[in-house]
Hints:
- By secondary structure, the chain is mainly β.
- The chain is built from two helices and 13 strands, in the order H-E-E-E-E-E-E-E-E-E-E-E-E-E-H.
- The longest helix is centred in the last third of the chain and has 8 residues, at 229-236.
- The protein is globular, with a radius of gyration of 19 Å.
Amino acid sequence: MVSLWENWRNGVGMGRRGPKFDTVGGPNTYAVELTKRYASISLTKQGADTGSMRVNLSWRMRSSDLNRKPKRGSLRHPLQMLKPEVVQTHTQGVVNVDLDLACMYEMADGTKGVVQPLGGFLGDLNSPPYVKLSGDDRFGSPSGESVYVNLDHKDDIKRLLFFVYIYDGTPAFDRTDALVTLHPSNGPRVEVALDEHAPQARSCAVLLFEHQKGELMVRREVRYVYGFQAELDRLYGWGLQWGRALKEGSV
């Protein structure tokens, strides 16, 4: 997929610096995509650092990979052709994957924690951590699942790390088209696609919110790990204590 940034640089935006918004469909559909090359955006400069922001995760199963041809050179190792893939299915769409959206937070006073379906840590929008999970979508419906952030209390928040993990089922980040979208109270929405192939990863750090020089910045991470929250914690130095837990409503 060619990003919005590349389209812009190859078009009329060649003589300017800055993001290109996707204006297809009218002013309410403006979007900017964060990529490896253009990985961060200032919510402050966009006038989007106040009010309620919705962070949404949606996904659908990718069927094209089911018909991928073997890589060149596989005939040199014929026994490898008999080895099953990490995710193997004989009918399209028959892959059990349950993606969850979650958020680690660190407050300005040093308080740290997590908002996630596991353990029923759903957060609160009107009191610390000013982050709240709206629900858990286990089927990848178009509406997905969302976390809300009360940016009217942005000065009380030091940093937020939004991440996605596979709670149950076979690791299948390479079989899903997942998209994390920020819907601020003002300005364009911000999109990050989880479209890299990481077949054995179980978690992915997606976005990091931080204050930098008086601005609230959002940076694309998209860093896959093979473990769960504890491994992401070590990667970003959060320092929380982790244990096994069930989702709210799980048996």
